[in-house]
Amino acid sequence: MRKTLSLIFFSAMMILVFLYGSHVFFSFTPEHMLYKLERGWTVSYHNQQYLNTNLEKLGDELETKFAKGDTIVLHYSKPLMDLNVDTPYLFFKTSFCSYEVYLDGELIAEQYTDIAKNHFVGISYYGVALPTDYAGKKLSIVLTVIENETNGNLINPVIGDYDDIYRDLLHTAIFPFFTGCFLLIFGMVFFVLSLIFYMGSPGVANQLFCSVLTVILGAWILTAFDIVDLVISSTLSTTIEYASTYLIAPCIYLIIYDLHKRQNNKILIIMGFATLGFSILFMALHFSNIVHFNHFEGPYYLISSVGFILLLTYGYIDLKSKSKNSSLIVTMVGLTLLSLSLLVYSVISILGKVADYRQSPILTVLIPTGALLFVIMQLLNYFIFMTHSFARKKEYAALTKIAYIDNLTGLPNRVSFDEKMVEFDKSEDDFCLLSLDLNGLKSVNDNSGHPAGDRLLRSFAHALAEIFDNIGTCARIGGDEFVVLIKDIDSFTLDGLLNKLDTELVALDKLDTEINHSVSYGYAFRHETEEKDTHTVLMLADKRMYSYKKQHYAHMMTRR
Q1: Residue pair 168/36 in contact by the 8 Å Cβ criterion
Q2: Which CATH code, of 3.30.310, 2.60.120, 2.40.30, 1.25.40, is assigned to 39-169?
């Protein structure tokens, strides 16, 4: 528990540093004055006029939402002032509306006024270039509502230099902007790395699901905060925003299910498929132009709130069971923090009091913070995964060494040699098998002790490997039995190497006078046998080795 609290505190400090740095290092001061058109609007709606209106409170004043086909005429009573800028622009935001912009009754811009029936128009900021003689003229904007239940609150338009307004819009959402970009890049890179390097490893599926959710969150933040409005169309931007919104809950259900596969998850499975089914249905209806995305917000948020309750329930069960699965705990903490921020967003969105999330400092900070905390938990989970993976690889390497490597000499053992023999049997190439047997190992063990015998085995194995490792495979297949499997060699070259081995053993005798370094050997080639298999070749090499050993001991007897 203490480690978890420490991690959360550390994560919070990182986010605060990130937030502070984004505002300090990317601070912005307009070169020219930005003129925000606040009070002074006359609004005509349903044959009624509302004087000196603040557009950001229009919905509250009307006490209603706009319906499809409604026309709202916005007339700014004051003449536009001359800002003395090179590229004068008018910026304003609409929700599901077509618009017409007039100066002194003359149309200067329009958008979506000739759209087909049921065509989807999204939420977006629009920039309208003002003519050079705009100063002193009066501005009017005519909005035609295209969707029912459209929020009545608007954003006060702004006039100023194009670059200044654009950079100001970006700066007011600088934290969501950097967070959204980071989530997109991090999610995609993390997904690819997990897919390439760790596919098949236990726990990697959950990392892939978390990566997908991270990408969805990044796309959602960039579109929900209107950061890409001047880059892509309002239709595409809003479509991405709603599609991402409707995919978040199914992804969270999937991650929770993957973390708790061994438990009874009937309710979770039902809710997960129900949410996914509703999301797919919403999208199908939208792209069929039957009913558009924005009409499903209420039902979706209701279903998602049930999911939040399920998330808390599973978190409580994990705490009560005192789960030791650190990956599960970390991921659940990240999901809970993310879901809390999304819950606040849902409440504010349902209330419909905010026309732009930038107007809410809570949302501007809370949503990116929740997403970043989720990513931090992913990084911690990845660290845990890598630690466990490294431990498993180390354990596997140790087991492999025990299974395939002779512990005393460090050479491959009988199991490893047998596998190599199978490989050579499958080949049609000629090969040579060299069989070696130490002379007098038992005598060394009996007279000088087993440590001396071990020393003899190690020193011989080292000499053998030094000479033959580059051209063949050396192995210890018994107490004093060694073999070398060579793919391509002739008798003359092999005899030269064996003479070199004999010379090396004589040199070892001088270094360690307590033991006698002596070996008998014999070799055979594949082409010398009828069967052509490694077993027959080894038997022939053994036969020649034992013949050599008899000669060796006979020679020793004559010397006595």
Answers
A1: no
A2: 2.60.120
**CATH 3.30.70.270 corresponds to the domain 414-559:** yes
The continuous run of DSSP H or E covering 558 comes out as helix 534-559
> Which uninterrupted H or E stretch holds 389?
helix 361-404
> Which class in CATH covers the domain with range 172-397?
mainly alpha
Each of the 560 residues of the chain gets a pLDDT tens digit; together they read 455 556 556 656 666 666 666 555 566 677 888 899 988 899 999 888 988 888 888 877 877 888 888 999 999 999 999 988 989 999 999 888 999 999 999 999 998 877 756 688 888 899 999 999 999 999 999 999 998 888 877 889 999 999 999 888 888 888 888 889 999 999 998 888 877 766 556 567 888 888 999 999 999 999 998 888 878 888 899 999 999 999 999 999 998 888 887 667 788 888 888 888 988 998 899 888 888 888 888 888 888 888 888 888 888 887 777 766 777 788 888 888 898 888 888 888 877 777 788 778 888 888 888 898 898 888 877 777 667 666 667 767 666 667 788 888 989 998 889 988 999 998 888 999 999 999 988 888 888 888 899 999 999 999 999 999 889 999 999 889 999 999 889 999 999 999 999 999 999 988 888 888 899 999 999 999 988 899 999 999 999 999 999 888 877 666 55
Distance CA 436, CA 522 (A): 7
Q: For the chain, what are the domain ranges?
A: 39-169, 172-397, 414-559
CA distance 406 to 477: 9
DSSP bridge pairs for 476: 482
- Angstrom distance (rounded) from CA 413 to CA 405: 5
**pTM, to two decimals:** 0.70
Q: Which helix (H) or strand (E) holds 289?
A: none
Specify whether the CB–CB gap between 307 and 253 falls below 8 A.
yes
Cα 545 from chain centroid (whole Å): 59
Residue whose C-alpha is closest to residue 256's, from 244, 243, 267, 241: 267
Beta bridge partners of 128: 90
Where does residue 346 rank: exposed (0-12), middle (13-18), buried (19+ CB within 10 A)?
buried
* Structure-derived torsion over alpha carbons of residues 548, 551, 557, 559, reported in degrees to the nearest 10: -100
Query: Which structure tokens are listed for 319?
Result: 């705490």
Phi, psi dihedrals of residue 98, rounded to the nearest 5°: -90, 160
What separation in angstroms does the CA of 453 have from each of 90, 361, 459?
93, 79, 10
